[in-house]
Amino acid sequence: AVHLACEAIRRGECGAAIAGGVNLILHPRQQAELCRVGMLSRGPATLAFGAGGDGFVHGEGVGAVVLKPLAAALADGDTVYG
Fold first, then answer.
1. What is the reported pTM?
2. N or C: more exposed end of the chain, with fewer CB within 10 A?
C-alpha cells in the first residue's frame, strides 16, 4: 500500500495519500497452531522481549500513514517522521 501510494504521488496522480494495513485473526486454527508449537506466552503477562520471556501474545491491529512530498509537508508545517 505504501509503495503504491508513493508511486501515485511520484507520478503526479495525487498530491498526498493515505496508506494503511490491518491484521485480523479470523480463524481459531491460527491460535490453536501457535499454541501447539509453543509460541504463546504461558503466563498472564507478555514477556516476549524481557527477562524470563517464554512467548508472545498476538493481537489485531491497524495502522495508517499520510504520505506527501517532503517539500509539501515542510511548506504545510507538518511533522516529518521519515
1. 0.64
2. C
